């Protein structure tokens, strides 16, 4: 049996997929949070509206995506599912705005980001602060948990 370290295949890129009710709306929310952009429409379509209208009714608005304009971060893919969110996420995104900061300076950076995201529809949950480290759990516009870190 080959060990984990002996494997020659490496992952070059990955995307994060969200199950959701309104893919485009949620994708545009995360574009605002992360500074991501909507990619160009699929080949052969001048706009996303033209692409949407070309789809059969049952497939319209079934997915949407956003990408890091620098090409560094993962693509985010949003797919419509019939069921709503029921329990806590098993995986969540951490929006890293306080890297390298500690204490009151870190807390202030996280609170400023919280204050920017709430008007976009994010829901503030609580502030976790021990005098040195801080984290602010939040929810996106469909109730998915994420943290400002």
Kindly provide the radius of gyration, computed on alpha-carbon positions and rounded to a whole number of angstroms: 18 Å
Quick one: how many beta strands?
8
Approximately how much beta-strand content do the residues carry? 15-25%
Instruction: Figure out the total of helices.
Output: 3
Strand pairing plus helix content: what structural class?
alpha/beta
Low-confidence stretches: none
- Cα end-to-end separation: 40 Å
Shape: globular
Mean pLDDT: 92
Tally of individual domains = 2
Helix content: 10-25%
* Main beta-sheet annotation: 5 strands, mixed
* H-E order: EHHEEEHEEEE
Structural overview:
The chain is of the alpha/beta class. The chain folds into 2 domains: 15-80, no CATH class; 93-148, no CATH class. It has 3 helices and 8 strands; from the N terminus they run βααβββαββββ. The chain has helices at residues 23-34, 48-54, 103-117; strands at 15-20, 63-66, 75-80, 93-95, 123-124, 128-129, 134-139, 145-148. The strands form 2 sheets. Strands 4, 5, 6, 7 and 8 form a 5-stranded mixed β-sheet that branches. Strand 7 (134-139) and strand 8 form a beta hairpin. The longest helix has 15 residues, at 103-117. It is globular. The termini are far apart.
